[in-house]
Automatic annotation (TrEMBL), chain A:
Keywords: Membrane, Transmembrane, Transmembrane helix. It comes from the Bacteria. This is RDD family protein. It comes from Gimesia algae. It is a multi-pass membrane protein. Its main location: membrane.
UniProtKB/TrEMBL annotation, chain B:
InterPro entries: SpoIIM-like. It comes from the Bacteria. Pfam families: SpoIIM. The keyword Calcium does not apply. The chain crosses the membrane at residues 105-126, 202-232, 252-270, 291-311, 317-339. This is Stage II sporulation protein M. Residues 151-179 are annotated as: Disordered.
C-alpha cells in the first residue's frame, strides 16, 4: 500500500502523494480480503496461499498418522492382549474412521478454525463474512475434501488458483476462507532519531507536509533494513529532492543529494516533534478539565 | 491531531484490548462476567473507530494493520457462534434432520431411482443368469460369498474380513462360548469405518456437478444387486435375505439419502436459480450437509444392527419380522419425526443458519 507509492505518478500541483487506499475498490489480484463489520469498519484479512496450506496439510497428515500408530501401539495393542481383542479392534476401526473423516471438523470446530497444522503455520479458517467457523460449515468443507483430493489434490489446487480468494471446492461450498493470522505488534513508536537534528527554521519555507507524507517517511525509515543500501538510497533520494523543492530548502544542498535518508529523517523530526511540547501542554490542560467531569477512559 | 499524540493517547486502550483477547481466547466469551463483556464490546467499537480514523488520515500501513488485526480478532470472538451441545444434537436427530430431508425429498427420490433401479435390474438379470455375475464381481469375491452364505460357512463373526473359510467353524464356536459379541464388535467398527465412509464420499463427490454421486450410486446399486442375485441363485437365498433384511432398512435408505444430498450439491451449481452459482452452492450446501450427517447417523445404527443382530443365531422368521419392523421404523422416522415442531415459530429453528431454510419448512 503506502510503501509502494512512486513519486513519478504524482501531480505536483494537486497532491503530495496519491491516495492509494480506496475502500471498496475491487482488487484484481492480491492476498487481501476485505470484510465490512457491523461496526461499519472495513477489515482486511491476509489470505493464505496454496503453498502455506500445503505445508499445514503435510503437518496435519503427519500428526494424524503418528496419532493412529501411537494409539494402536500404546493403547489398542496392549489392551488386546488383556481383554476383548475384538472389541478393541472394533474401537480402533472407529478411531480410524474419526481420524479420516472427523479430524479437521473436530479441531476446526473446537479450536476456532485451527487444526494443529494450521496453528503451526499461523492459519485460520473463517467464514467469508469474517465470522468464526461453526460445526456444519466445517463438516461441509472437510467432507468435500474427498472431492478436492482427487489426483493428489489436483482438483483443490486448480480451484484455488481459479478463485480470487484461494478457495478449494470445500471452501466454496461452505463459504469459508483460510487466512493468515498476523502477530499483534504495535509499531515501535518513535524511531531513534536522537542523532538527527531538526531542520533550521530559517532554511525552509512555510510549507507543511501532510500527515501521510510524514507517516510514509516514518515507515520508510523504520523498514529501511529491508532494502539494500543502494536501493534505499535511490528511493530516498527521489523523495528527498521532491520534498526539498516543496519546502524551498535553502540549507546544505549536499545533505539532500548525498544523505537523502538523513534529510528525510530531519524533515520528519522537524514536523512530527517540533510542536510536541506545545501539544503536551494542551493535552495536559484538556486532561485537567476532563478529570473534573469524569473521563470514561479513566474508568474503563 | 498528530499521529504520535494519537498513538500515545490511545495506546492504553489498545494494550487493554490485547490483554482481553489473550484472556478470552483461552476461555469462552460467555463465561466472562457481564461488566467485562460490556467493556469488551465498548473497546471493540472504540478501536473500530480508531481504525477508521487512522485509515482516513493515511497514518501508515503498519499502524493500520496492527489495529486491523486487533479488530479482526475481537470481531471473531464477539460474533462467535453459541457452542454446540447434546440438546442440540438430539434436536437435530429428532426434528431437524427428518424435516430437512422432507423439504428436499425430490433429490432423495431421484437418488433412490439411481440406486434401487439398477440394483433391481442387475439382481433379476444375475439371478436368472448367474454366469453373468463374474462380469460385475471379481471371481475371488464370488467364492468368498459361496463360503459365507453356504451351508457350512458360518455368518457368525469375522468371515467377511478373513478369507480363510476353513477355520470358521472353530472360531464361531469360540466366540459363542467365550465372549459373545467380542468378534462382532470388530465388525461393528469395520462397518462404521467402511460404510459411513462410502456414504460420505458419495455425498461429497456431488460437488463435481453431481457426477461423482451419480457414479457412486449406480456402481453400488449394480454391484449390490449382482451380489444379491448371485447368492440367491446359488441356493443360499434364505440365509442371505434373513441376514440383510434387518440392517438393509437403515443402510440402503441411508445410501440413497446421502446420494440425494450429493445431488443437491450438484443441482445447486447447475440450477442456481436467482442466486449466483456460488451463493446457491453455499445455501444449499449447508442444508445438504445436514442431510448427509443424518445419513451418517443412520449408517452407524445400521452398522450396529449388521454386526450384532444380523449374524445372530436366531430363527429366520424372527429376523424377517424384526427386519420388516425396522423398515417400518425407518419409514415412520423419515416421514413423521419432527412434524409437530414444524408448527413452532420459525425463529426457533436453532440449527438453520440461513433464512432460506426456515422458508422452506413453512
Amino acid at each position: 500500500m503506502a510503501s509502494t507509492i512512486t513519486l513519478e505518478e504524482t501531480n505536483p500541483d494537486t497532491a503530495d502523494f496519491p491516495e492509494t487506499f480506496i475502500p471498496g475498490e475491487k482488487k484484481i489480484l492480491g492476498l487481501e480480503m476485505q470484510v465490512e463489520t457491523p461496526e461499519n469498519v472495513l477489515l482486511s484479512y491476509q489470505l493464505a496461499g496454496p503453498s502455506q496450506r500445503y505445508v499445514a496439510y503435510l503437518i496435519d497428515f503427519l500428526i494424524r498418522t503418528i496419532m493412529l500408530i501411537a494409539i494402536f501401539m500404546f493403547f489398542i495393542a496392549p489392551m488386546m492382549g488383556l481383554l476383548m481383542p475384538g472389541a478393541m479392534l472394533g474401537l480402533f476401526f472407529v478411531i480410524m474412521f474419526l481420524n479420516t473423516w472427523g479430524y479437521y471438523t473436530i479441531s476446526e470446530t473446537f479450536f476456532k478454525g485451527k487444526s494443529i497444522g494450521k496453528h503451526v503455520c499461523g492459519l485460520r479458517v473463517i467464514r467469508e463474512g469474517g465470522y468464526p467457523i461453526t460445526f456444519w460449515p466445517s463438516l461441509l468443507r472437510n467432507l468435500a475434501r474427498s472431492a478436492d483430493s482427487i489426483i493428489l489434490y489436483g482438483v483443490g489446487i486448480t480451484s484455488m488458483l481459479m478463485t480470487q480468494r484461494f478457495q478449494r471446492l470445500g471452501d466454496l461450498v461452505a463459504g469459508t476462507v483460510v487466512i493468515q493470522e498476523r502477530s499483534l505488534t504495535l509499531p515501535r513508536k518513535p524511531i531513534i532519531l536522537n542523532k538527527i537534528k531538526p531542520l533550521d527554521k530559517n532554511d525552509i519555507g512555510s510549507f507543511l507536509p501532510r500527515d501521510e507524507v510524514l507517516s510514509l517517511i516514518d515507515e520508510f525509515i523504520g523498514r529501511r533494513h529491508v532494502l539494500t543500501y543502494e536501493r534505499g538510497h535511490a528511493l530516498a533520494a527521489q523523495m528527498a529532492q521532491r520534498l526539498a523543492k516543496r519546502l524551498h530548502y535553502s540549507g546544505d544542498e549536499k545533505k539532500v543529494s548525498q544523505y537523502p535518508m538523513a534529510f528525510l529523517a530531519s524533515v520528519y523530526k522537524t514536523f512530527s516533534f517540533g510542536q510536541i511540547e506545545e501539544e503536551q501542554e494542551l493535552l495536559d490542560e484538556y486532561k485537567r478539565r476532563s478529570d473534573s467531569q469524569g473521563d470514561i477512559y479513566e474508568e474503563t | 491531531m498528530k499521529k504520535h499524540k494519537f498513538i500515545h493517547q490511545r495506546r492504553p486502550q489498545w494494550k487493554k484490548f490485547e490483554q482481553f483477547l489473550r484472556q478470552v481466547s483461552s476461555r469462552s466469551l460467555s463465561k466472562l462476567p457481564a461488566d467485562k463483556i460490556s467493556t469488551f464490546s465498548q473497546l471493540l467499537r472504540e478501536i473500530s473507530h480508531d481504525l477508521a480514523t487512522i485509515r482516513s488520515r493515511g497514518w501508515g500501513h503498519e499502524l493500520t494493520s496492527y489495529l486491523n488485526d486487533l479488530v479482526a480478532r475481537g470481531h471473531n470472538l464477539f460474533y462467535s457462534a453459541p457452542p454446540t451441545n447434546f440438546a442440540r444434537f438430539y434436536r437435530y436427530l429428532a426434528a431437524d434432520f427428518p424435516r430437512l430431508f422432507r423439504a428436499n425429498i425430490g433429490y432423495f427420490l431421484i437418488a433412490s431411482l439411481l440406486f434401487f433401479l439398477p440394483m433391481g435390474v442387475s439382481w433379476c438379470v444375475v439371478q436368472n443368469k448367474p454366469e453373468l455375475a463374474s462380469r460385475v464381481i471379481p471371481e475371488e469375491y464370488l467364492s468368498q460369498f459361496d463360503n459365507m452364505y453356504g451351508e457350512e460357512g458360518g455368518l457368525n463373526s469375522d468371515t467377511e474380513n478373513t478369507t480363510e473359510g476353513n477355520t470358521d467353524s472353530e472360531e464361531s464356536e469360540d466366540s459363542e462360548t467365550d465372549s459373545f459379541g467380542d468378534q462382532r464388535a470388530t465388525m461393528a467398527g469395520f462397518y462404521i469405518n467402511h460404510n459411513v465412509g462410502i456414504a460420505l464420499k458419495c455425498f461429497a463427490l456431488g460437488v463435481l456437478l453431481g457426477l461423482g454421486t451419480v457414479y457412486t450410486l449406480l456402481f453400488n446399486g449394480i454391484f449390490l444387486g449382482a451380489v444379491s442375485g448371485y447368492i440367491i441363485s446359488q441356493g443360499n437365498g434364505d440365509r442371505f435375505l434373513s441376514f440383510v433384511i434387518s440392517h438393509g432398512s437403515f443402510e440402503l435408505t441411508a445410501i440413497a439419502v446421502a446420494g440425494g444430498a450429493g445431488l443437491m450439491l450438484g443441482n445447486a451449481i447447475i440450477h442456481p436459480g436467482q442466486r449466483t452459482r456460488f451463493q446457491s452452492l453455499q445455501v444449499r450446501g449447508l442444508e445438504a450437509v445436514q442431510i448427509a450427517g443424518g445419513a451418517a447417523a443412520m449408517l452407524v445404527v445400521a452398522a450396529m444392527i449388521e454386526a450384532f443382530w444380523s449374524p445372530a443365531d436366531i430363527p429366520n422368521i424372527v429376523k424377517y419380522s424384526v427386519g420388516s419392523g425396522l423398515w417400518l421404523i425407518v419409514f415412520l422416522y423419515l416421514t413423521f419425526a419432527g412434524l409437530q415442531s414444524d408448527r413452532r415459530l420459525p425463529s426457533q429453528h436453532s440449527l438453520s443458519n440461513s433464512p432460506q431454510q426456515g422458508d422452506q419448512h413453512r
